[in-house]
Design goal:
Pantoate--beta-alanine Ligase, Chain: A,domain 2; alpha/beta; single chain; 6-stranded parallel beta sheet; binds pantoate; Rossmann fold
């Protein structure tokens, strides 16, 4: 696996790979890799000739009071993990290589997608995500982009931008990888104390219970949401949102439809965690 820090150099190398007829798969990350990321790398090496992983803690997607400076940076461990897989290139640019002096261009996402759910509590977050993802896609030019379903709103925003900006990249969404007890894997889980980790389990438990209540118990939307919120509030410090939405538009759903997403963001101690479950009519 080759470590590359210069955007231009990676762009040239991958141009050559494509000219030789090689397909490129790309996994954007902020590092502190876990099994969720590794499942994306494995999927890419199965489906492409060349796999590129990026590790870049993108400052433009963090708000002023968020955890940009505290975000885990463990490059050596990440490299060791990636070397056990079939990643070909690791791209680790500096902030100044991605946003040089005088940088002026940002990708604006419609408020309908960017200012709801996580975006309501993290103003500017999806503008930063969309901007860095477009830059990374322009640098790597992949046939396939791999994203984890845990970041549901991010997947919706990126899938929409790929469609809207006529990009040729195919977005491949891989299932959330969970610990044996159900906790969704996240780089931020390492911040949880043992007690907080126990309480964090309520999040996945409540999401799956809500799915069951809606599908099997035929409980109404208002009642299932109210029950979920009251259970969550007993275990976590703060529930930012708990919503049942249309997966494509992110608008709240009021009656049963073919596919729905139940999404939540909670603080356990000082750590913000997100998780979701998808409900399909065929799950009945
Ligand atoms: O999901 C992440 O790790 C980040 O939001 C991403 C997609 C790498 C953009 O910085």
């Amino acid at each position: 696996m080759k470590l590359i820090r210069d955007p231009k150099k990676l762009q040239q190398i991958l141009q050559k790979e494509r000219a030789r007829g090689k397909s490129v798969g790309f996994i954007p990350t902020m590092g502190a890799l876990h099994e969720g990321h590794l499942s994306l790398v494995r999927a890419s090496s199965r489906e492409n000739d060349v796999t590129v992983v990026s590790i870049f803690v993108n400052p433009t997607q963090f708000g002023l009071n968020e955890d940009f400076s505290k975000y885990p940076r463990v490059l050596r461990t990440d490299i060791k993990m990636l070397r056990t897989l079939k990643a070909d290139y690791l791209f680790c640019p500096s902030v100044s290589a991605m946003y040089p002096e005088g940088y002026a261009t940002f990708v604006d996402v419609s408020p309908r997608l960017a200012n709801v759910l996580c975006g309501k509590f993290r103003p500017g977050h999806f503008r930063g995500v969309a901007t860095v993802v477009v830059k990374l896609l322009n640098i790597t030019g992949p046939c396939r982009l791999y994203l984890g379903a845990k970041d549901f709103q991010q997947v919706t925003v990126i899938s929409q931008l790929v469609r809207d900006l006529n990009m040729k990249t195919q977005v491949r969404v891989m299932p959330t990888v969970r610990e044996k007890d159900g906790l969704a894997m996240s780089s931020r889980n390492r911040f949880l104390s043992p007690g907080e980790r126990d309480r964090a389990l309520t999040i996945s438990r409540v999401l799956f219970a809500c799915k069951k209540n809606l599908l099997r118990e035929k409980m109404g939307f208002v009642a299932s949401r109210r029950r979920a919120l009251s259970e969550l509030k007993r275990s976590v410090e703060r529930v930012q949102y708990f919503e049942i939405v249309d997966p494509r538009t992110l608008a709240p759903v009021k009656k049963y439809q073919e596919k729905m997403a139940v999404l939540t963001a909670c603080f356990v101690g000082k750590t913000r965690l997100i998780d979701n479950v998808i409900i399909r009519n065929s799950d009945k």
